[in-house]
Design brief:
The complex is a heterodimer.
Chain A (H helix, E strand, L loop, with lengths): L7 H8 L5 H10 L1 E5 L5 H11 L3 E5 L24 H12 L4 E5 L8 H4 L5 E4 L4 H14 L3 E7 L2 E7 L12 H4 L12 H4 L4 H19 L8 E6 L5 E5 L6 H4 L4 H5 L3 H4 L3 H4 L1 E2 L1 H10 L2 E5 L15 E2 L5 H4 L7 E5 L4 H14 L4 E5 L2 H14 L1
Chain B lengths: L1 E6 L4 H4 L3 E5 L4 H11 L9 E4 L2 E3 L10 E5 L6
Parallel strand pairs in B: 1-5
Antiparallel strand pairs in B: 1-2, 3-4, 3-5
Classes of the chains: A alpha/beta, B alpha+beta.
């Protein structure tokens, strides 16, 4: 590893620390950290990591600055409203510390790009604001074997932990799935937008994440591995939980890159009734993917007969007795106009809960055929 | 015997308080069942259950010296 020239003046106060020293500074300069989300948590993480001299900092976010962000997202000013957060944050960080490299990704981290972006970094910091991205990042970090510095807030309380650290080979390091194997349903837990958050709280939690990141890089202190710290801003109480590996967690993480990219994280975190119905295009995509059981719930003799794709026939009246014969994780139901398939989807959802993804074709086979005829005639 | 229970995050919207005392529970299974009986909203909620700060995933015997914590996931950022 080539050592970089250290600006002694800039980092003087932390190099003075005996545990930290020039070696610690050199480690920071060599480190590559990706901060996911440039919001309430991301802003302090970015500021402190840039100031401390983390050599390469990636920022990924597709959001633009809004007035309602400014009470907690302290990198931005009123002049930034309407502009991309990553662009504004990168500009400020480069002014703060021109000696480091700042890479801005003005896009959302998704299952489609995560496995391309994350490998270039050593440590990932989760500063996102929703469960679907949190689960996606966690699973990607497990697959890619990257430490994840987790932080999250709710009203007056915050959580901090390091997942997937893999530093001590003696004890396995937990990941988010060991804490909460499955995401909560939509509406079960509210985000900041719905529940509110005290502006200073993500500042405190984000600063703790920056601190944990620096400890992880430099190897000083006792990072929050297999521990989760919670902080309450109202009474200043902290509470530490000691975490351990949960048996079922590993089986919930996609086994490989292919399975990861096929995992619909948005769906996992949404409430079933609103998302049962899919349109013709999504339906066709599921047919192409070929992993789903496609079921016609019309009576056997009903017309039109479907010959365009292979499917099972389980009339709605028999769905109760035959539900358990469905073996696939994804089930797509269709009928004539979409009414019976919605009923069947609701029923199957009750039977299988979160263990299967259940969809039904909106508008039924009549609309599907009409759409395809229309396409062919164009 | 009485068991101390600390409740975090938006679970307090269900319980109405961040601190509960329960009597007559001897293990975490009976504790959860009793909580679900008193606060049906908890039955569908996701949380980690910790006995003296150690997260447990299987039934554990508890006594009155133990403090139980219910920790839900937070999503905000």
């Amino acid at each position: 590893m080539d050592s970089k020239n250290i600006s002694y003046d800039r980092y003087n106060r932390q190099i003075l620390l005996k545990q930290f020293g020039e070696a610690g500074q050199q480690k920071l300069l060599q480190a590559k950290v990706l901060v996911v989300g440039a919001g309430g948590l991301g802003c302090p993480v970015l500021q402190y990591l840039a100031a401390a001299g983390v050599g390469t900092i990636g920022i990924i976010d597709d959001d633009i600055v809004a007035l309602s962000n400014l009470h907690r997202q302290v990198l931005y000013t009123v002049h930034d409203i309407g502009l991309p957060k990553t662009e504004r944050a990168a500009l400020i960080l480069r002014q703060l510390n021109p000696e480091i490299t700042v890479i801005a990704y003005n896009e959302r981290l998704t299952r489609h790009n995560a496995l391309d972006i994350i490998p270039a970094f050593d440590i990932i910091v989760d500063g996102t604001d929703n469960f679907s991205t949190r689960y996606m990042i966690n699973d990607a970090c497990v697959l890619l074997n990257k430490p994840l510095v987790y932080g999250a807030v709710s009203q007056f309380e915050g959580q901090v932990a390091i997942f997937n650290a893999n530093r001590q080979s003696i004890e396995p390091s937990v990941n988010y799935r060991d804490l909460f194997p499955q995401p909560p349903g939509e509406g079960e837990i509210h985000n900041c937008e719905e529940a509110g958050v005290l502006g200073v709280l993500p500042g405190i939690i984000g600063t703790m994440q920056a601190n944990e990141t620096i400890k992880l890089i430099t190897g000083i202190g006792q990072p929050l591995i297999n521990r989760m710290l919670t902080y309450n801003a109202l009474n200043n109480q902290t509470y530490e939980l000691f975490l351990s590996v949960r048996k079922e967690a590993a089986s919930l993480i996609p086994a490989n890159a292919e399975a990861f990219k096929a995992t619909d994280y948005e769906w996992l975190c949404s409430s079933p009734p609103a998302t049962f119905e899919i349109n013709t295009e999504t339906f066709d995509q599921i047919l192409v993917d070929g992993n789903a059981a496609v079921i016609d719930v019309r009576e056997i003799e009903e017309f039109p007969i479907v010959t365009e794709f292979s499917h099972l026939q389980i009339p709605l009246s028999q769905i109760g007795e035959k539900a358990r014969t469905i073996a696939t994780d994804t089930v797509v139901i269709f009928c004539q106009s979409g009414k019976r398939s919605l009923q069947a989807a609701q029923y199957l959802s009750g039977v299988f809960g979160d263990s299967k993804k259940i969809y039904c074709l909106k508008g039924g086979v009549l609309q599907w055929k009409a759409m395809h005829q229309q396409k062919e005639s164009i | 015997m009485q068991v101390n229970i600390i409740i975090f995050g938006q679970l307090t919207d269900i319980t109405g308080t961040g601190h509960l005392m329960l009597t007559g529970v001897t293990d975490t299974n009976t504790l959860v069942a009793e909580l679900n009986r008193q606060y049906p909203g908890l039955a569908d909620a996701r949380y980690m259950l910790a006995v003296d700060k150690k997260v447990v995933t299987e039934n554990v015997v508890i006594n009155e010296h133990n403090t139980i914590a219910l920790m839900p996931p937070f999503s905000g950022g």
